[in-house]
Amino acid sequence: MHLNDLSTPCALVDLEQLERNARRIADKARRLGVRLRPHVKTHKCVEIARIQTDLHFGGVTVSTLAEAHAFAAAGFTDITYAVPIAPQRIAEAADLHREIDALNILVDHPETARAVDELASSRGLTLPVFLEIDCGGGRSGIRSDDERVEQLARRLAEAEAIDFRGLLTHAGHAYRVRSRREAFEVACEERNLMTAIAAQLRDLGIPVPELSVGSTPGMRAIDDLTGVSEVRPGNYAFYDAFQAAIGSCELDEVAFSVLATVVSVQPDYGRAVVDAGALALSRDPGPVHVDPYCGFGRPVAVEDLHPLPGLQLTALSQEHGTLGGPGVAALRPGTRLRILPNHSCLAAACFDRYHVLRGAEVIDEWHPVRGW
Amino acid sequence: MHLNDLSTPCALVDLEQLERNARRIADKARRLGVRLRPHVKTHKCVEIARIQTDLHFGGVTVSTLAEAHAFAAAGFTDITYAVPIAPQRIAEAADLHREIDALNILVDHPETARAVDELASSRGLTLPVFLEIDCGGGRSGIRSDDERVEQLARRLAEAEAIDFRGLLTHAGHAYRVRSRREAFEVACEERNLMTAIAAQLRDLGIPVPELSVGSTPGMRAIDDLTGVSEVRPGNYAFYDAFQAAIGSCELDEVAFSVLATVVSVQPDYGRAVVDAGALALSRDPGPVHVDPYCGFGRPVAVEDLHPLPGLQLTALSQEHGTLGGPGVAALRPGTRLRILPNHSCLAAACFDRYHVLRGAEVIDEWHPVRGW
What we know:
The structure is a homodimer.
Chain A: E1 10-14, H1 15-32, E2 35-36, H2 46-53, E3 60-62, H3 65-73, E4 78-84, H4 90-99, E5 102-107, H5 110-122, E6 127-134, E7 142-143, H6 148-158, E8 162-169, H7 180-203, E9 210-213, H8 216-221, E10 230-231, H9 241-245, E11 256-266, E12 271-274, H10 278-281, E13 297-300, E14 312-316, E15 321-324, E16 336-341, H11 344-348, E17 354-358, E18 361-366
Parallel strand pairs in A: 1-17, 2-10, 3-4, 4-5, 5-6, 6-7, 6-8, 8-9, 9-10
Antiparallel strand pairs in A: 1-11, 11-12, 11-16, 12-15, 13-16, 14-15, 17-18
């Protein structure tokens, strides 16, 4: 089937570009001497994770327990659930852990640590736990300069029913950079903070088996990960308009796009409408800190993915994507185009299936996991 | 089952509030002498559409052909697909039209009009078509002051295989107002423009059987719809934090919420994290034109839905919702709260099921339509 025979809006994955993206990061991880545990939240798709983990140890990172269940069912046996676990779901995680080699969970609070220890103990289990550190992203995790890092690390290391695996961080501020140079600085700081904390803890007699770091901007920029044991980038499978704007990739490396059809054209008012709205692209505002006029995604040509001149995706409502600019004069009702999303993780989650392309041929259909 | 037994994040629909919301608009439509054709895109759920259409003629509005198929299969026989149709999908619409009383489609371009006429003619059908007018929203539709309104209306009225149903508009700028007073002005302008165009066309001998208008802000604000034949509000089934901010509803009328669990608390840094992120709430920015500090949704108490003091949903990433403010000191890992979304249409679409509540009891589970 040719991609023009697909009904729109729909999600397209360019297989050859995806494979190139995967290989490049896999090679780099090997070169830097770290294990690669890709974050599958970007695509939630076992076929893609198999490509990403090829020639690596096979571990993956997930963002929901639903992903953990689905990837375990598909044969992935070493999974890190990289969101602090809700106390109400520890039992579910423990049950899944028993079925595979390891479901590693995250803790950043003493009450959760106690709840994990009690639950595991009551079931005669030992649960692998990472302590989440906030190295500057300002989301979850204990701040790297907080004295409670030591207290909680000690507590986890001494807990009878916990296998303290080490420290995990995600430099969320890698998404606030403006260039690969700035991403490099954030990634170096992430590495330096984490290796320094690990050294302090080890000096205090607390074993820290692993240091897990990573983001796609950081992994593209960094050149030395001495002291780090594993990296967890995720977006690099697909990339997106945001990553291109901050220098993590070139626009032609983006492997995920949304195929859309023009349904309304009013050249005299300088606008047109495509059938891909907020439910097909998400309302992610994109790299406004780098390009205030980035719009809600990059319209590109169907066949060769070159950016369409004079066209911006200026507004999204639920099922309408409004295009503005002089380029609308070249559009007709029925014209097809592709949109490189601002944020491929959120756009991909809009779809129940990905159409897998080799060139312009649709060669497969893959189904992402949904829910929590 | 009590709502606290649900796994999070999940979607909650308060049945009694939904019924009150539906009844109020249904009563008002009758009082104003217009037919009510609710837009089901907000919930995409046949059970809710049945409540909304109770004691009305049973017509609904949809935003995708997938919704049209699902609602037709559930027994809805008069459906308006309120996005200009893509030429590639006219045949599919024609097939569905043949199975029910009416699938009304939208056209705003002469090329699409010709394609509809040709397709319908080739199948020996007559397809019901509305001409979409842009009354100020600036999205799809021919602008109300454009001379091509007359040309296209005449073309549709004269086409052999088209049943020209009249004019349809959606005052999208009703979402840019700051108060019910402004929404009233927009709704009056919408009505006045549409009745004026219809009068002009009728003077020119072009029959205009119907005038279809409507939005939730407009329907709450307007008090006279003389000349209008039907209204298509949709959001009023659920409402949301946005509608409350612009005066379309009170906060305690919101019937849709997302149940979330606190997974991280750092009171010393004035923040906490819940397990409802961008994939559970959407990245809709909310009523920033009225309240720049609105955040990404309103945290409210689980039981009585009162706004939680000193808590703001300051940031969303894929599966993390970051709470800020002094209220985080009252939170613990495992604390439950509900979030009234900024935009219930986009948040509801994040979920494969709605848990239906009567008070705090979960009494049913409903499944929205997905896809296109």
